[in-house]
Specification:
By secondary structure, the chain is an alpha+beta fold. The protein is 29% helix and 27% strand. Helix 3 crosses helix 7.
Length: 306
């Protein structure tokens, strides 16, 4: 990864470098993430130091958007295999589903109905101050449910948190696991969704329509991340959804992640879905058949950027 150097300036525009303040313990990183998990990753914390079958999980979380459990591990030591450990945890989860559901109930006193948990979108997240090129390459498979997040702390108490994205040319992990039954069972049950999955079988016109809106959303601000899930494609900034797109055969469904009453929509093209069941996030939805209102729609989407 490229190195980022931070500076601060005074009133005379004289710059001074902000030096990194390294974490001394993994526990420090864990506390930062667990105290801010909703803000950083949009997740609910279920349990810190969750033990199952004599294995300790640093943080057990739940993703209310994908309706799946997430295991988070924190590392200061670079000498570990993220793939082997990640696959072990995923296998452990899939073999002990009832324990994870029970832990959620004991914490929140709320049942998670079986049909509301999507085990296929389970994932493991590793958080570290630094990953080696080997670790990044080892996790660079499009259908590997393992994410790498890098965290840096600086002298002025600034944190830099970066999700390391997989490359667009990333291959499938499945051929490498065909001879390993434990890993093969995991990859057969868990599905990491891509834009290609949503666009498969769609007409050239719908693909082009999606690409036009995708590019317009990405041009609204820096650091927007595309996160496909089972039912829609999310566009996120700083861990929070801005807008979701559900790709249909003849149109797009676009959801703006704002609560009822927050959106200024003078043309009233967004539908209030606050009391209607729907897949995407937020209380506003519109159907898109062409690009004639694209600039206006972008002005609405921009209101969701924080």
């Amino acid at each position: 990864m490229s190195k980022i150097t931070l500076y601060k300036t005074d009133n005379n525009n004289k710059a001074e470098q902000i030096k990194e303040k390294p974490f001394k313990l993994e526990k420090e990183i864990q506390r930062v993430f667990e105290n801010n998990l909703q803000l950083i990753m949009g997740l609910q914390i279920v349990k810190s130091e969750f033990t199952i079958k004599d294995r300790r999980i640093d943080t057990l979380a739940y993703d209310p958007q994908s309706k799946a459990f997430v295991i988070i591990e924190y590392k200061l030591n670079k000498n570990h295999s993220v793939v082997d450990q990640g696959m072990t945890y995923l296998s452990l989860m899939l073999q002990n589903k009832a324990d994870f559901v029970l832990e959620y109930y004991e914490v929140f006193k709320k049942n998670l109905p079986k049909n509301e948990i999507d085990w296929s979108q389970s994932r493991v997240v590793f958080v570290s101050t630094d990953f080696t090129e080997f670790q990044i390459e080892a996790a660079n498979f499009k259908d590997l449910a393992i994410e790498l997040w890098e965290i840096k702390r600086y002298d002025n108490n600034t944190l830099a948190i970066t999700s390391i994205n997989k490359s667009k040319a990333a291959q499938s992990i499945k051929p490498f696991f065909d001879k390993n039954k434990g890993y093969k069972d995991v990859t057969n049950e868990i599905k990491v969704y891509t834009e290609e999955d949503h666009l498969q079988g769609k007409s050239d016109e719908i693909v082009e329509l999606y690409e036009r809106f995708k590019l317009s959303i990405l041009n609204l601000t820096d650091d927007i991340e595309i996160k496909p899930s089972k039912l829609y494609i999310s566009f996120k900034k700083n861990g929070s959804n801005i807008v979701d797109i559900e790709i249909k055969k003849t149109y797009l469904k676009l959801y703006i992640n704002m609560k009822k009453g927050e959106l200024d929509d003078p043309k009233k093209i967004m539908r209030d879905i606050s009391n209607v069941g729907h897949w995407g996030n937020g209380d506003y939805q519109t159907k898109i058949f062409d690009t004639k209102d694209i600039e206006y729609i972008m002005s609405l989407v921009k209101q969701a950027i924080k």
